[in-house]
Structures are given as structure tokens and as C-alpha cells.
Amino acid sequence: MFVFMVNKKLLVYLEGFLTTERKDTFKRILNERTRHFSIVLEDIYQPHNSSAVVRTCDVFGIQDLYTIENKYTNKVSKYVTKGAQKWITQKRYKSDGDNTLSCIKDLKDKGYQIIATSPHSDANILNDFKIDKKTAFVFGAEATGISDTVRQHADGFLKIPMTGFTESLNISVAAAIIVHEVTTKLKKSNISWHLTKLEKEALYLNWVRKTIKNVEKIEERYFKNEGTFTNE
Predict the structure, then answer these.
(1) What are the residues whose beta carbons fall under 8 Å from the beta carbon of 208, sequence distance 6 or more?
(2) What distance in Å separates the CA atoms of residue 66 and residue 74, rounded to the nearest whole number?
(3) At what angle do helices 171-187 and 47-60 cross, to 10 degrees?
(4) Percent of the chain, pLDDT > 70?
(5) CA-CA distance, 25 to 179, in Å (whole number)?
(6) Mean pLDDT across 144-169
(7) 141, 43 in Cβ contact below 8 A?
């Protein structure tokens, strides 16, 4: 994944607008973030579902969320996300082409295996899932599930064991269960799952910028004076 080089002098200047507690919080959370796992939402049309998944990603340290918009536009509710959307990296596939195939290709180019969530009998049980490979978990539309394109190109299928009369879970609940299970295993393993130094620096700058009101004007003033003044 491409990560731009951080302007260290600019970052130091912008840090002056944050409290020490805020900066420490950012650094602590970055140490718990991972790109070993990513989440993919395909044609999720209910805002409360996609919003809940956003919160799940943030809570359990999943940095990247991919959304595929073939039939429906993916929307989130700020009342459900509680601001979590600011802290994760989202990429939307919404062109007129085959968005599902484009997303899968991009993920495979990044070294991810594609694991589709499905209640079908040939799917692997969550408890037995091996976490060693970089994995993108795909969740399909509320009513119909994953598309035929996902089925054709998935490297495997995963299901949550169920013992009741109901044969399926709400997508946001299923995502929370799966993400909690795999991230818990990951953080107990010897797998190198942390972000790289460059990834942390880039995200840290991004988070700092999102925290500062009117940051564009502040940066414009900084570059105009090229760091010849201190914070006011």
C-alpha cells in the first residue's frame, strides 16, 4: 500500500495545536491498528448496518474498510458511527463498471486472500479459521448475501456456527463476531500484524489534521511563512 512521506516540520507545527493527552491517545491507538485483516461491504443499503460495521472496525483495530456500490449507495449515520468514520480508511468502489471485481483485484494485488462470509454448509467454521494469511472478509447485501462474482473469485468461505432455529445473523452482528474472533487470535499470535512506521506516520498526520479546526488555513499560513513562526 502506497504511503506518502510525511512533512515532519509541518507535523511538529500542527502538533502544537493538540494536547499531550490527545497525541498520546493517537499513538496508543495506532499501535493497536492492523491491515492484516480488512473488511469489505458489498451493496449494503441500510445505513445503520454499514455504520455499525464502521464502529466495529474502529473498536477492534481494523484500519481499512472497502465498500462496493453496484446496486446501492453505501451510506453511514453519524448517530451510529459516533465519529468512528474519521479514524478508519475507507475506499469506495462506485463506478459504472464491475465494482466487485475491481475491489477483489485490488485486494488480491495487495496480497489479501478473499474470504466470503456465507452460511452455506461448505464454508469453514469461524472457530477453525487460520489467521496466518492477510485476509479481506466480504459481507454481502442484507437480503441476498454475497454476489455470484464474489463466489467465483473468493479464496474461501466462512460461517459462524449457530445452534438455534434462526439460520442467519444481521450483517453488523456477524461482522462484529467475526472481527472480534480473528483480531483476538491475531493479537495473541506471533504474526507481524502491526502497521509499518510509515503507515503510522501517515495516519497520525491524517488524524492530527482531522482534529484541528480550519486546518487548511493553518497549513496555508504555515507554508507561506515556511515555519518561521511558532503557534499562537
Answers:
(1) 11, 14, 15, 18, 23, 26
(2) 10
(3) 10
(4) 94
(5) 22
(6) 90
(7) yes
C-beta separation of 66 from 91 below 8 A: yes
The CA distance from 221 to 162, in Å, is 58
Which cell is 202 given? Answer: 501517515
d(CA 105, CA 66): 12
All 3 cell numbers of residue 56? 466495529
DSSP structure class, residue 85 = G
Going by their DSSP bridges, the two strands 156-159 and 113-117 should be labelled as parallel
- The tens digit of pLDDT for each residue in 112-126 reads 999 999 877 678 899
Calpha distance 197→31 (Å, rounded): 10
Domains and CATH numbers, the chain: 34-198 (3.40.1280.10)
In this structure, how many other beta carbons lie within 10 angstroms of the beta carbon of residue 33? 22
Residue 95 backbone phi and psi in degrees, to 5: -80, 180
**Alpha-carbon gap, residue 27 to 105, rounded angstroms:** 32
Distance of CA 176 to CAs 55, 183, 219, Å?
9, 11, 38
Give the model confidence (pLDDT) of 60-77 as tens digits.
999 999 999 998 888 777
3-state per-residue secondary structure call for 31-71 = CCCECCEEEEEECCCCHHHHHHHHHHHHHHCECEEEEECCC
Pairwise CA distance, residues 5 & 120, whole Å: 45
